[in-house]
Amino acid sequence: MKRLFASIVVLGMSTALPFAQEKKPVPKDSVRVAIPGCTKGSVFTVGPRTSDQPGSADLPEGMHLRMAGPKDVMKEIKAHEGSMIEITGLMRKGQFNPDGVHIGGGVRVSPGAAPVGGSVSPVPVTSQMLAIDVEGWRTAVGECPSR
């Protein structure tokens, strides 16, 4: 009887494990990315790509991302602040584009041309911080720059 119960428990656990590790589906307007870099608080700074850990997003080194995610994951990431890590999460498609910021409905706002001559000084362009919904993380090779 004990042997039958133990085999049922083992069988039940072995069939449940693959389903527990499935990733949630990616919404149509988003993409799952893996990005190496460093954190400070809830800000992630994109780090250099290496040949063994290239990442999956085409974001320039030094770009800042605002992280959001489950409290336990964010707590683990905060514990590794100052160490190079790779985060995996969801970002909206078209969020980063050097041609401007997508504001919805097919509308994109981009900086205008610099003024030619005259006494008007150009206004510095501020960039909107991109966001990532963090699903997980892992340690990565490399050093974070000291600040």
User: What value does the average pLDDT take?
Assistant: 74
Low-confidence stretches: 13-21, 121-126
Helix content: 10-25%
Total number of β-strand segments? 7
Count up the helices.
2
Spatial shape = globular
Q: What is the rounded distance between the termini?
A: 63 Å
Assign the structural class, choosing from mainly alpha, mainly beta, alpha/beta, alpha+beta, or little secondary structure: alpha+beta
Major beta sheet summary: 5 strands, mixed, barrel
CATH class term of the domain at 24-103 and 127-142: Mainly Beta
In CATH terms, what is the fold-level topology of the domain at 24-103 and 127-142? Answer: OB fold (Dihydrolipoamide Acetyltransferase, E2P)
* Order of adjacent strands in the largest pleated sheet: 1-2-3-7-4
SSE pattern: HEEEHEEEE
Radius of gyration: 21 Å
Approximate strand percentage: 25-35%
Question: Architecture of the domain at 24-103 and 127-142, according to CATH?
Answer: Beta Barrel
Keywords:
147 residues; alpha+beta; OB fold (Dihydrolipoamide Acetyltransferase, E2P); five-stranded mixed barrel; two-stranded antiparallel sheet; 2 helices
The gist of it:
The protein has 147 residues and is α+β, with helices and mostly antiparallel strands. It has helices at residues 2-20, 71-79, and strands spanning 30-40, 43-46, 64-68, 83-92, 101-104, 107-109, 130-143.
Topology diagram in text:
Blueprint: H1 2-20, E1 30-40, E2 43-46, E3 64-68, H2 71-79, E4 83-92, E5 101-104, E6 107-109, E7 130-143
